[in-house]
């Protein structure tokens, strides 16, 4: 047997034998030529996984341990980021203003959602727009709670999925509901920004009732699109990749499975992204045109700026929020696109390119997306930073309160 520096070394002239798959003292994996990934998988996993995954050689345990540690770190970051967003809205001793009171009849007073949406002490955050933002944080928070811990245990401790097929189906079900729900919440946040920035005063105002309806729609839509495969009536859920996680069966050979995958790609990816591209392309266009017009007018009047401090703060806030939201959308695109490519490649392309490791990267990126929004808003959203500085001064954010910002004229004549 010849030793190499590769993680995987095949032994020639040997028949398949589990005892001959081992790691040497240099952490190199050795296996006979006929060894395959999942050779020691339990019968339950074999019965609910595609034969495709068993056509590849054994995977070095380093990779799944690395994935597991990554998901643990992701869990810490996502829980902290989304937890801070939720904390700001939960930190309350005072009810929300009158226009929100009528919504409380629809939600139990003792429920977490009631406290998150209505018990808001920071007045600058008591807006329908921020109802969408905190709902997004809550959705991401729940998703990472249901995804990262079982993945960490299965990847680092048990090698294969450790909780049975029913809970693996629940794992994929919750990932689909909260992942798709979060995507629709981002669409509605984009719609709100679109109305404010593109249409201004003439735009459609989002009321608390409309914001609540949007939140209900987001999760009703996602539940309706994911439930058929969970119940097994259209498509199915199987173990994928390293066999320590579950996903929708995008390797299905029959038309029933293929049609469901195409349905998911269109209604849970293409359609939402179409709305996103429409809203945010118009936002960027409006911001660019507005800034260009102001600069041209200021140049004609021989001044540096046409805004007072108050108006400048207001305009810059809207532009900052638009930029922050656009950044979040770009990151979501980077997260969703690889998964869509993998799914379509599995259906219409060369499947041998989808190895167990390759299959886990898009899934990992989807879960990373749950960390984007709280981090971006915590860094860039002025009102949120102000609230954090007030509630948690030890964070050292030091955002200046809007009440302390002085109004006045910042217009200065330019010198020739």
TrEMBL record:
Keywords in alphabetical order: Chromophore, Disulfide bond, G-protein coupled receptor, Membrane, Photoreceptor protein, Receptor, Retinal protein, Sensory transduction, Transducer, Transmembrane, Transmembrane helix, Vision
Superkingdom, taxonomy of origin: Eukaryota
Homology family: Belongs to the G-protein coupled receptor 1 family.
A Pfam family: 7tm_1
GO molecular function: G protein-coupled receptor activity; photoreceptor activity
Subcellular location: Membrane
Residue stretches spanning the membrane: 66-90, 131-158, 170-191, 212-239, 259-280, 324-345, 357-379
Species whose genome carries this gene: Tigriopus californicus
Transmembrane helix recorded as keyword: yes
Protein's membrane topology: Multi-pass membrane protein
Residue ranges constituting the G-protein coupled receptors family 1 profile domain according to the UniProt record: 81-377
Protein name, per record: G-protein coupled receptors family 1 profile domain-containing protein
InterPro entries: GPCR_opsins, GPCR_Rhodpsn, GPCR_Rhodpsn_7TM, Opsin
Annotated Gene Ontology cellular component terms: membrane
GO biological process, alphabetically ordered: phototransduction; visual perception
